[in-house]
Amino acid sequence: MGNRKSVETVWLGLTTSLIIGSFFFEGIGPTGPVTCTVNDICCKSLLRKHVIPALQQSPCVSSTIFMQDGAPPHVAHPLKRLLSMHFGNYRIISRRFPTNWLPRSPHLNPCDFWL
């Protein structure tokens, strides 16, 4: 096995009645899977292809509040437009939205606690 160091970048969504994911951000390199840099393009693709369709199949989609931290890929203009289109500006907690995620917030979010 060797001393191979593995770093995973994963996205997981939680609601009170649904778990969406987990989705790994990785590509295929010459020696197998490699972790990819998370950017606005792959975030938007993940939301469009997997997250939003999964939420649309849920009965609670109309009351879902989408919460994410203020990482730069999360607040890129194309991603903001996609989120606003599906959740409206007032059901999103994130930087650069009316309900702002506090910078360097010490509060735990569900992923900090459960994962």
TrEMBL record:
Listed InterPro entries: RNaseH_sf (IPR036397)
Gene3D superfamilies reported for this sequence: Ribonuclease H-like superfamily/Ribonuclease H
Top-level division of the source organism's lineage: Eukaryota
Molecular-function GO terms, alphabetical: nucleic acid binding
Protein name in the entry: Tc1-like transposase DDE domain-containing protein
Source organism per UniProt: Araneus ventricosus (Orbweaver spider)
